[in-house]
Write a structure and sequence with these properties.
The chain is α+β, with helices and mostly antiparallel strands and about 210 residues long. The chain contains two helices and four strands. The chain has helices at about 55-140, 140-155; strands at about 165-170, 175-180, 190-200, 205-210. Strands 1-2 form a two-stranded antiparallel sheet. Strands 3-4 form a two-stranded antiparallel ribbon.
Length: about 210
């Protein structure tokens, strides 16, 4: 049993974990720009084969090509006309998502700072108790002496299954400490110290506790 504990070593320092929502600190990237698609180009028709009715066939093919081009132009104009609304919708969704991120970040930051303050307050309270204990020990206060003795006894290390009870009392008028220690009797101490498996014989052997007077 160590009969001395340096109370200054019982002081604590604050160890804050890192902020646990770092993903909220990263801005949401804006949506990719939607560019106007290129307009359709007029595709001239292939020249018809044969000589019979060639002129009429050419005129018909050119008319069909113009109609197809006008239809493509109409679809292109409609698509281009719809793009401003799509761009505005994406921009609004991005602004909303960014706004929600900032709100969440502020809430999580406030929660984290509150937890940090609680940790700091707990450490400050603990260290203040150590300061008070050290000061009261200097004055020989009974409660302080008994608390210190409890700390010393709690640091005592005994073998497993070795139950030890302490009773003590400090008399301030004589500055004497009465300490009674109750330990297990010989009949309560295990007789076997260790167990070992022997593979060759497939047996478990034991080592007895040493008997000391």
């Amino acid at each position: 049993m160590d009969d001395y504990v340096d109370l200054d070593e019982l002081r604590r320092t604050v160890d804050h974990p890192p902020f646990d929502k770092p993903e909220l600190e990263v801005s949401i990237p804006p949506p990719a720009a939607i560019l106007d698609p290129p307009g359709p180009e007029y595709q001239p028709p292939e020249q018809p084969s044969g000589l019979l009715g060639r002129k009429k066939k050419i005129a018909q093919a050119e008319a069909e090509a113009r109609d197809a081009h006008e239809a493509a132009l109409s679809e292109w104009r409609a698509e281009v006309a719809s793009l401003p609304a799509r761009r505005e919708q994406l921009a609004n969704e991005h602004r909303k998502a960014e706004s929600e991120r900032i709100v969440d970040l502020e809430a999580e930051r406030a929660r984290y700072e509150r937890e940090c303050s609680e940790r700091e307050a707990e450490v400050a309270r603990h260290n203040a108790e150590i300061d008070t204990l050290i000061a009261n020990l200097g004055y020989g206060a009974v409660d302080a002496v008994e608390q210190y003795v409890s700390i010393v006894l709690s640091n005592s290390v005994y073998p497993d299954h070795f139950n030890v009870n302490h009773e003590f009392q400090f008399e301030p008028t004589t500055a004497e400490l009465s300490l009674h220690v109750l330990i297990p009797g010989p009949s309560e101490v295990p007789e076997i110290k260790t167990y070992k498996y022997v593979k060759a014989s497939d047996e478990i052997t034991t080592t007895a506790q040493s008997q000391k007077a």
